[in-house]
Known about the structure:
By secondary structure, the chain is α+β, with helices and mostly antiparallel strands. The chain contains two helices and eleven strands. The chain has helices at 30-36, 127-140, and strands at residues 4-7, 14-17, 23-27, 40-44, 50-51, 57-61, 66-71, 77-82, 88-91, 102-107, 123-125. Strand 8 (77-82) and strand 9 form a beta hairpin. 15% of the residues lie in helices and 35% in strands. Strands 6-7-8-9-4-3-10-11 form an eight-stranded mixed β-sheet. The structure holds zinc ion (ZN) (2 copies). One zinc ion binds at residues 27, 29, 31-32, 40, 108.
Amino acid sequence: MTEKTGQCLCGAVKFRATPKANEVTICHCGMCRRQMAGPFFAIECGDSFRAEDSPSLGVYSASDYGERVFCKDCGTSIAWRTRDNTFSEVSVNALNDIGDLELKQEIFVDDKPDYYSFAQQTRKLTGAEVWEEFEAAQGES
Ligand SMILES: [Zn+2]
Ligand SMILES: [Zn+2]
């Protein structure tokens, strides 16, 4: 796929990344919902995520394995990535040109509150199923 660019609301943090496919994953986990003020609309970009150096670039280590990239000035959530940056999920809503996307899967569906749901037919994974797949994928590489 072709490389995409994006930025935060105020423009202080700019990034580029190459999506693996035109497919959106929604994460319903409690950490994403708290940070994003809603479910996380993410596009997988492998190890291609690169944020430009900026004093406004914030990186929050939310867990032993992952960190969250955001803008310290305007608060925009930009990406979730593994600490070694080999895997990234970039916020679709921070891209400059969203393009033609398909809502493909929803993860941590066991953490989703009952008051909302999406109408599309998607592949749905619980948190435990996500970790099983992630560990299997890490083992392959
Ligand atoms: Zn900003
Ligand atoms: Zn999440």
